[in-house]
Amino acid sequence: METGIHNTSEIGRLKKVMLHRPGAELENLVPEYLERLLFDDIPYLKEAQREHDAFAECLRAQGVEVVYLTDLVVESITDNAVRQEFIRTFLQESGVTEQRMEERLYEELSAMPDGEMVRTMMAGVRKSALGKKGGRLGDFLAATEDDYPFAVDPMPNLYFTRDPFATIGRGVSIHKMHTVTRNRETLFGKFIFEHHPLYQNAPRWYDRGETSSLEGGDILVLSPEVLAVGISQRTRENSIDTLAEAVLGKSDTFKKVLAFNIPKTRSFMHLDTVFTMVDRDKFTVHPNILQSITVFVMELDENRQMRITQEDGRLEDILKEHLHLDHVTLIPCGRGGAIDAAREQWSDGSNTLAIAPGEVVVYARNDVTNRSLEDAGVRIHVIPSAELSRGRGGPRCMSMPLWREDI
Fold it and tell me: For the ranges 63-72, 137-146, 200-209, which has the lowest average pLDDT?
């Protein structure tokens, strides 16, 4: 079993990965609150779980050790003091303002076994569930005092484990998310990387207490020396300054950060929606970035001060220069066709998970893009995706590598 964190590329042989199997949080999605919870549709839980199990089994069949977010959180509750801190912090960040409601939630969570408690935190708490118990009138009134049905909101985005934190080299960045809805997810990372016996000593590149947002879908480890970060709808330039200073100043290998300035729209949500690395010299791409893109190259000078230079040009040329490649193959989503690319980009055709150089996991529904990958000599492992894709994230979004072999 691999211990600690080791992630020096996007394509090194994947040895250990963290997933989150979708749970009851998806059954707390209702049409009226989809926008609030960052969903466009409601996945059918049982089928989403079958698809996710197929994803996990696909990885295991290729020799990858799969661990689950819920289990890691439970294993991080190492004593009663940690448990009490965990519950208190969770309630503080859940937006509960009524004291009696907070007391009631604290009582119920404290009485649960660790696993049930963590799953309940993730699933959210319906007011109706609280209102059915108790010997005080206020307990019942709390369930009916307004139309909003939740005492604590669900966390339906949790199965996209890529975003709340990121592994970079031997360290980790724990993020401040762009939205309040998702920021609560990073609490689980906080306790894992503070208390889990295998991960508590990992260097910290970024912390959830920062004031500007950073999300894991915007972070690509292109090589042991080059980190790419997207300036996106959900990751701000101030966050990249902080991350770059930490990684370049304290890591053993990284020499430069490439900050890609991408459109600030939902269809370009994160950098890994725009492109992903599938081999040493092959990348899947959103067709709309094939013409020109702006990159800010961040490096430390001889005095250990940050130096930033701007480069404008083709993605292909930028990648060749900074990764020291003679040739780069860009594989457009949907073969670049106006209709196929738009349709398959909607279901994350450019978002692949590399499990080894030239070997990736893809969604079955993106068949045009998948044929392009095969034509380029990339081996694909196809997983079912009818329900998982409704959350607007692909195989890379659903996985957090904990250990990759070096290239």
Answer: 137-146
End-to-end, the C-alpha distance of the chain in Å comes to 20
Angle at 290 between CA 320 and CA 356, to 5 degrees: 55
Residues 6+ apart with CB under 8 A from 224: 8, 9, 169, 253, 254, 406, 407
- What confidence tier does 134 reach under pLDDT thresholds 50, 70, 90? low
User: Are 387 and 46 contacting, i.e. CB atoms less than 8 angstroms apart?
Assistant: no
User: Is 58 a catalytic site residue?
Assistant: no
> What is the chain's mean pLDDT, rounded?
91
Distances (CA, A) of 47 to 6, 220, 362, 386: 33, 30, 18, 8
Give the pLDDT mean for 376-393: 93
- The per-residue pLDDT for 132 is 55
Phi-psi category of residue 123: left, alpha or beta, with phi > 0 → left and psi -120 to 50 → alpha:
alpha
Other C-beta atoms within 10 Å of 330: how many? 19
**Which of 5, 202, 397, 400 is the catalytic position?**
397
Nearest-CA neighbor of 400 among 249, 237, 248, 215? 215
Residue 352 in 3-state DSSP?
A: coil
Residue 3 — very low, low, confident or very high, per pLDDT cuts 50/70/90? low
Q: Alpha-carbon distance 241 to 225, whole Å?
A: 17
User: Distance (Å, rounded) from C-alpha 346 to C-alpha 341?
Assistant: 8
- Rounding to the nearest 10 degrees, give the CA dihedral for residues 239, 228, 166, 22: 110
Residue type, 174: I
- Rounded distance between C-alpha atoms, residue 248 and residue 252, angstroms: 8
Other Cβ atoms within 10 Å of 219 Cβ, number: 29
Bridge partners (DSSP) listed for residue 313: 293
Residues 6+ apart with CB under 8 A from 330: 275, 282, 283, 284, 285, 290, 315, 316
Q: Which two three-digit tokens encode residue 380?
A: 């694909």
pLDDT by residue (tens digit) across 23-33?
999 999 888 87
